[in-house]
Design goal:
This protein is α/β, with parallel strands linked by helices. It is 46% helix and 17% strand. The protein is built from 15 helices and 14 strands.
Length: 411
């Protein structure tokens, strides 16, 4: 039985949208937050959105959005990031669920995110409806090239190329993905970058004050209050470069006795990875200067950043720019980031301390952020100015409206 959060409304067929999001919903991480923002904007613009999602996560109510949750046949509590057989099962289940909804309803646009885009384009072809393929990443690069996964990798690559060619409109989140899309087609590609958390989901002042006090108390318990803190936020998956960050921090601490007063705080990640890194710390010289805080609510992030001297993103893999970069920029704090495309398509040396992904180079970038305060403040201000002008809520909404206008025109 399909679960629906909002009572279904009767509105003209020309305003109905099917949004296919094969994600746990709602979870406080990149893609689900992006889906929530898009669904909220579409609802505000008068569309009735049928949003189909996986059966884990927090149920939330969005005006104008009918949340359709797949049945939890496997009785799972968690669906991990990236490829898994568990996720593949729910992808197949989503195919049947969305096909049923397409038979029951007249949609003006069928919009799919990531692998949901394959399904959206296929259903659009069958029902002759406008389609949007939301290309958040290159999924074929996230699957291994050996064993049974090699076959799945080839299938995903085919589906990606076919979907890009046949969608009414392709939405991308960064210039690297836009270039890939243009390799397969020469029109109707709309680049819609993420925006800072506080732009998408503003925190009420009373809650912000509460969070400020809570975060301060946690930092005091760690014994880090009043220290100069470098902050990382995000998951602890290998591609994020946490190992590189810890190695660079150890080199930095060993540069001089005075640096032992500096602190690294890492916010995010599941308990198992957090514990694994903490065990490494028991064998490293950075044991007393690094704290793994674990997962914290998204509405606390501005409070964590307010207490930090600088922010860091040591990511080593991938092309799409992580959501946290835009949130980092909005904080006005100086940023250290690897000089990989995932960062450089948004950040420049005027906005951040960009460094090669090597521990010695990153250690020197950390040293410069802490010691060269004028330059650090200058780059933080420049990043803040850029995010205010280029990555605002209004810009995001305008680009989404443009994508839908193009899709409907292609019908």
């Amino acid at each position: 039985m399909v679960e629906a959060e909002n009572e279904e409304l009767v509105i003209p067929a020309s305003k109905k949208v099917l949004l296919i999001a094969p994600q746990p919903f709602f979870e406080e991480r990149g893609t689900p937050m992006n889906v929530r923002l898009m669904a909220s904007i579409l609802g505000q613009k008068g569309y009735l959105v049928d949003l189909v999602v996986f059966p884990t996560g927090e149920k939330i109510c969005i005006p104008g959005v009918n949340l359709i949750i797949l049945p939890n046949i496997l009785r799972v509590n968690h669906i991990p990031i990236g490829f898994s057989l568990k996720k593949l099962f729910f992808d197949f289940l989503m195919f049947f669920w969305c096909t049923w909804f397409c038979l029951r309803n007249e949609y003006v646009v069928i919009h799919g995110v990531e692998e949901g885009g394959f399904l959206a384009v296929l259903l659009g072809k069958i029902s002759r409806k406008s389609t949007v393929y939301d290309m958040d990443s290159v999924m074929s690069e996230q699957v291994k090239s050996r064993g049974y996964q090699a076959v799945i990798k080839k299938l995903i690559l085919f589906c990606e190329k076919w979907s890009v060619k046949n969608a009414s409109v392709v939405i991308t989140v960064c210039s690297a993905l836009t270039k890939r899309a243009y390799l397969e087609r020469n029109a109707a590609v709309v680049q819609i970058e993420d925006i800072p958390l506080e732009f998408a989901f503003p925190v009420e002042e009373s809650l912000k004050l509460k969070n400020d006090l809570l975060v301060e108390s946690i930092v005091r318990e760690l014994g880090f209050f009043g220290k100069k803190i470098l902050l990382y936020t995000g998951n602890l998956q290998k591609y994020q470069g946490i190992d590189l960050l810890l190695e660079a921090w150890q080199v930095f601490i060993e540069m001089g006795k005075e640096y032992k007063e500096y602190r690294l705080v890492i916010v995010g990640g599941p308990d198992n990875l957090k514990c694994s890194y903490e065990q490494q710390g028991q064998r490293g010289v950075w044991q007393q200067s690094v704290a793994f805080v674990g997962q914290r609510p998204a509405d606390e992030m501005s409070s964590w950043m307010a207490l930090a001297e600088g922010l860091v993103s040591p990511r080593k893999e991938g092309e799409n720019t992580p959501l946290k970069i835009y949130t980092y920029m909005a904080s006005g704090k100086p940023i250290i980031a690897t000089d990989k495309l995932t960062h450089t398509q948004v950040l420049t040396q005027d906005m951040a301390f960009l460094t090669v992904p090597e521990k010695g180079a990153m250690a020197k970038a950390i040293q410069r952020l802490f010691l060269d305060e004028n330059e650090a403040c200058k780059r933080g201000r420049e990043a803040f100015n850029v995010v205010q002008s280029k990555y605002s809520y209004e810009v995001f909404a305008q680009k989404l409206e443009r994508a839908y206008s193009l899709a409907i025109k292609e019908r």
